[in-house]
Write a structure and sequence with these properties.
heterotrimer, A: about 325 residues, alpha+beta, Cytochrome Bc1 Complex, Chain D, domain 2, five-stranded mixed sheet, 12 strands, elongated, C: about 550 residues, mainly alpha, 16 helices
Chain lengths: ~325, ~240, ~550
């Protein structure tokens, strides 16, 4: 993907360079050829419709090539592949908190294996930040109150700069870090090195301890919708709209449940805003997603050492 | 500043109100008119930003906005709408009176306009007071426990979203009220000048242009009333 | 206008500058020319404030570490640089200085339609300026000139509301200027001056004024909402309280994108005047340039979300705005081509204003092309919020707007003051500006592409070389700006005295004396000729300054 962006950039540079050179040379040549000392009297030329049309339409065509190529790349950048590994990112002033699905947590560093599609699911605890990896030529603003995503596939091992690219206060320029790309074997070793529970396990425990399972039962229809298999499927709301149950919908249902009420259900779910912090929301979302996955689980989990069940983290105001 | 040769074009027996950078009274009148229309366009863009915010949030938080809107008094809103419409009538009549040179009528209608404007503001004051008592004023004292009645059930709403509604309600009606106050002030000044005889059939441009301003403020209310009060009464 | 020598007027005994010497006659003037001079002085003062902050930025960025000042201070410095330059220099400069002075003169009127509102505009600018200066001196604001929410509403303790009020008031200065220009151009043209005979500088100011009156109120109300949110702890833009930070960005950029066209269009108008005079030719493609100005104004309102490609807008919205952003490029390109074509078979002189016009064409072309690169979303994702964008907008704003302004200032200086500036020093300054500018900002394109983000107080060491180059350029640029300050003031006393038309230029402003009398024309002109009738004006001879 980075290569494609560079290719487009070189094309744009060439066109811009040629255009600029043309204009510079034209102005220079004309200014010298028709200088006052040589040409005492100017020849009045009103204009030329043909020229006007030519130099309006031709640039427009060239610009359309810019647009189309750029749009194609952008479409790919905004469409994460379905099989991408997900990593949750929580931005706050002035650090990046990263949580892998396996439970591994990092601050200001993101370890990824080569050859793997990685999708970042990001939110902010406070102001707008932006997750910028210049080497991969990608960037996405990270907003409070919702998830934004970006994805990449690293191809070469190494350390690459991570910058915050949306001004966020005092240490905006200090909110950097590294993307650490490793060969798959090394990555597996690194992943195995820390004690932690998979994100959806944490979510499952929260689901129970916060009382969600009282209404959202998996065996029978309870007071709330059965969440098995609902992730990324359409949901009919009681006002007639149909929405897709994606990350943002799931998150909203936890923090602002009366915003969208599923058809056939009563608006009785209390809000958890202020009761769960961003990382806990991420865990719950991961758990809900896991209810739509095939039971064997993903390849990464095979490397998961057995770990003692984690205590639910203290319920703090975010 | 005039050249020594006085031509008929340049030096008609001119109206004392003619400003000297204009060629003639007609040009001055046209300029003043165009200027006022352009100013009204800026006012529309100014309020437009708030209408835009309201529209966006209404779509995003329908239930809460509907519930909050149901807390406003349609009676008072409708009464105020009627008051403003009548005041626009008095403005038109004032312009006609100026055109006809009828000083007494002109002053009467100008004063009536101010009175109606003040009536509007007083009623608005009562509405605001009621909102204050019911803790619907956004800020640290805000509290909202009403539900959205969609006909079949009462749905509880997020109080933050209801607060958003009231933030926009106060911002929009408050900005409108500020423009009403300016309008009342403007018309009071005009009434005084009219009583002193500043206006005549050959010069009543300020009355016309102030009238345009008043009509715009009225039209803004005509939009505010249905958008804020009326559209959530039914599903 | 016959082919005989132009009737030149000598400096009158009584003109607008010496018609009343008291402070009151200046501070309560309704003469558009005096108001233009008042603006000239105030705008220059704010340019130096903004420039001072720029100097601090470039000095800090000489080293990768933050060592000259603390992080918070740096954040305030770049914010104040941006706010002052955008709201108190770039937006008013050409309309309020050159526009105010020239619009009535160019259309043969005695003054603008609303002279007292013109004075009010200046006072609003001054009041806004005093407030922003107070903010500057008592701690500044640290949100960036774009004051994005929720940082500006809920996470900063600096004087947002006061700065907001300052910008709000200055915005109304802008609105009233635009309103004045539109009414003047519509209603007060001299007899015979039809729309297709208007100088392109008038068309440019007309298009600019349309943007001023339509766009500025939107940022005004946005500022009100931000202030209200801060004061009463509301949640209009705060997601924790049901608000949407993206709504702020949409409302903000709905004005702030057209705002950049407010900045560039008048300078483009200046360039049209300069190219024609110093090629002794009618403009190539008059109608196309005139309509391009209006097209830029209209299309400029349709593209705001190209500032938000990575902000979280939908994929499809991004594509639409990318497509529309290219449409704005076409009229600008058309203008550049038409100016270049005007040079063909002209009789070109290299007076300083023409050098600035040449500089404008080159630098604006580069700035505009990099703008197209930014409109290409696949590229924008990588370079947005980096120094690439900083370089792009400085190319168009400094390489474009400022060069156009300086060219115009030199061109009309004899008209405004009756004196000529020293040509050799002026040429030197133009060269310093051109060289210094490119050295300052070209490295920033590279810096941006290799990944240096904007608004960074400290940066990884590998970016240092380019930053040092940039700072070196900035010092040359600063010299290029200081010199005119000195020689313009010098010229007021020692400059060659000029007659009414030292450049043998077309345009009604050159038919009246330099400086013009208070009411502009002794008789209202009646226009029977087309714009830029250089075929009817005798060939330019090297002007001999009129002896005192």
């Amino acid at each position: 993907m980075a290569g494609q962006v560079d290719a487009l950039y070189i094309y744009l540079l060439l066109v811009a360079g040629v255009m600029s050179a043309l204009i510079f040379v034209a102005v220079l040549v004309l200014a010298i050829k028709y200088r006052r000392v040589r040409v005492r009297e100017a020849q009045q030329i009103e204009g030329s419709i043909v020229l006007e049309i030519t130099w309006s339409v031709l640039p427009l065509f060239v610009m359309m090539t810019f647009f189309i190529w750029g749009a194609v790349i952008y479409f790919q950048e905004r469409t994460p592949p379905a099989n991408a590994t997900e990593v949750y990112v929580v931005a706050k002033q002035w650090m990046w908190k990263i949580e892998h699905m396996e439970g591994q947590r990092e601050i200001n560093e993101l370890h990824v294996p080569t050859g793997q599609n990685v999708k970042l699911i990001m939110t902010s605890q406070d102001v707008i930040h932006s997750f910028f990896i210049p080497a991969f030529r990608i960037k996405q603003d990270v907003l409070p109150g919702r998830y934004t995503t970006e994805w990449f596939k690293a191809t070469k091992p190494g350390r690459y700069h991570l910058f915050c690219a949306e001004y966020c206060g005092t240490m905006h320029s200090g909110m950097g870090g590294d993307i650490v790309v490793m060969e798959p074997q090394e990555y597996a070793q690194w992943m195995a090195g820390g004690p932690s529970a998979p994100l959806q396990e944490t979510g499952k425990q929260l689901f129970a301890s916060l009382g969600c399972s009282t209404c959202h039962r998996l065996d029978v229809q309870g007071r709330g919708p059965n969440l098995q298999g609902i992730y990324n499927k359409p949901v009919l709301l009681e006002d007639g709209r149909t929405v897709i149950a994606d990350e943002n919908y799931t998150r909203e249902s936890i923090l602002n449940p009366t915003a969208k009420i599923v058809s056939g259900f009563k608006p009785v779910m209390p809000t958890f805003q202020g009761i769960v912090n961003e990382e806990q929301v991420n865990a719950l979302v991961a758990y809900v997603k896991s209810l739509s996955q095939p039971p064997t689980g993903t390849a990464e989990l095979q490397n998961q050492p057995s770990a003692p069940p984690r205590q639910p983290t203290n319920m703090q105001v975010q | 500043m005039h050249d020594s040769q006085v031509t008929t074009v340049e030096h008609e027996a001119h109206n004392p109100a003619l400003l000297h950078h204009f060629a003639d009274a007609q040009q001055q009148k046209n300029a003043a008119s165009l200027g006022m229309w352009l100013f009204l366009v800026t006012e529309i863009m100014f309020f437009g930003g708030m209408f835009c915010a309201y529209l966006v949030y209404r779509l995003a938080h329908y239930n809460a906005f509907a519930a909050a809107s149901q807390q406003l008094s349609i009676k008072l809103g409708a009464f105020n709408t009627a008051v403003l419409l009548v005041s626009s009538l008095t403005v038109v009549l004032a312009v006609k009176a100026a055109e006809a040179g009828n000083r007494k009528q002109l002053v009467t209608y100008l004063v009536l306009t101010v009175a109606l404007g003040l009536t509007f503001l007083v009623v608005k004051g009562f509405e605001y007071a009621e909102k204050f008592e019911r803790h619907h004023v956004p800020g640290p004292t805000f509290s909202f426990t009403d539900t959205f009645d969609d006909g079949s059930q009462k749905i509880p709403v997020n109080p933050n979203e209801a607060q958003l509604y009231f933030s926009l309600y106060f911002a929009m009606t408050g900005m409108h009220a500020l423009h009403m106050i300016i309008g009342c002030g403007l018309f009071t000044v005009l009434a005084v000048f009219a009583w002193k005889g500043h206006y005549s059939p050959s010069y009543f441009t300020p009355i016309e242009n102030a009238g345009l301003y008043w009509h715009l403020v009225d039209i803004i209310w005509i939009y505010l009333f249905p958008l804020l009060y009326l559209i959530s009464r039914h599903r | 206008m016959s082919r005989e020598a132009i009737a030149l007027k000598q400096t009158p005994k009584l003109h607008y500058l010496n018609n009343g010497h008291s402070l009151k006659s200046w501070l309560l003037t309704t003469d558009h020319k005096r108001i233009a001079i008042l603006y000239l002085i105030s705008v220059t003062v704010f340019f130096f404030f903004g420039g001072f902050f720029a100097m601090l930025i470039r000095l800090e960025l000489l080293t990768p570490q933050g060592d000259l000042m603390g992080a918070d201070t740096y954040n305030k410095v770049f914010t104040m640089h941006g706010m002052i330059m955008v709201f108190f220099f770039l937006i008013p400069v050409v309309p309020a200085v050159l526009g105010n002075f020239l619009v009535p003169l160019m259309i043969g009127a005695k003054d603008l339609a609303f002279p007292r509102i013109n004075l009010l505009s200046w006072y609003l600018y001054i009041i806004g300026g005093i407030l922003i200066s107070h903010v500057m001196l008592t701690g500044g604001v640290d949100t960036g000139w774009t004051f994005y929410t929720p940082f500006s509403t809920a996470f900063t303790n600096t004087k947002i509301i006061e700065a907001g009020i300052a910008v709000f008031i200055a915005g109304f200065s802008s609105i009233f200027t635009g309103l004045n220009f539109i009414v003047t151009i519509h209603r007060m043209r001299a007899p015979g001056l039809t729309w297709d005979r208007l100088p392109l500088f008038i068309w440019a100011n007309y298009a600019t004024s349309l943007i001023m009156i339509l766009g500025t109120p939107v940022v005004a109300i946005t500022i009100v909402l931000v202030a209200v949110e801060r004061l009463f702890h509301l949640g209009i833009f705060d997601p924790r309280l049901g608000g949407d930070p993206l709504l702020f960005q949409h409302l903000f950029w709905f004005y702030s994108h057209p705002a950049v066209y407010i900045m560039i269009l008048p300078s483009m108008g200046v360039v049209s005047e300069l190219i024609t005079c110093f090629s002794r030719k009618r403009i190539f493609g008059y109608k196309f340039i005139a309509l391009s100005s209006v097209a830029i104004a209209v299309f400029g309102f349709l593209v705001w979300a190209h500032h938000m490609f990575v902000a979280g807008i939908s994929l499809y919205a991004a594509m639409v705005f990318s497509f529309l952003s290219f449409s704005v490029g076409v009229p600008s390109a058309v203008k550049v081509f038409n100016w270049t074509a005007t040079l063909y078979k002209g009789s070109i002189s290299y007076a300083t204003p023409m050098l600035y016009a040449f500089g404008f064409i080159g630098l604006f072309t580069m700035g505009g092309l990099t703008g197209l690169m930014l409109a290409t979303i696949g590229i924008d994702v990588h370079v947005t919020d980096t120094y690439f964008v900083v370089a792009h907008f400085h190319y168009v704003m400094v390489g474009g707007v400022l060069m156009g302004y300086l060219g115009g200032l030199h061109f009309w200086w004899p008209k405004m003051t009756g004196r000529m500036y020293p040509e050799a020093w002026a040429k030197l300054s133009a060269l310093l500006v051109f060289v210094g500018f490119n050295l300052t900002f070209f490295p920033q394109f590279i810096l941006g592409y290799v990944g240096m983000p904007r608004r960074y107080w400290q940066y990884p060491p590998e970016f240092q070389t380019l930053n040092v180059l940039s700072t070196a350029g900035a010092s040359i640029l600063a010299a290029g700006y200081l010199l005119p300050m000195i020689y313009f003031v010098w010229s007021l006393r020692y400059g060659a005295i000029c007659d009414s038309n030292p450049w043998a230029a077309a345009g009604l402003e050159w038919k009246t004396a330099s400086p013009p009398p208070t009411f502009n024309f002794d008789e209202t002109p009646v226009v029977t000729w087309e714009a830029y009738n250089y075929d009817e004006i005798p060939p330019w001879e090297r002007r001999v300054p009129v002896a005192r």
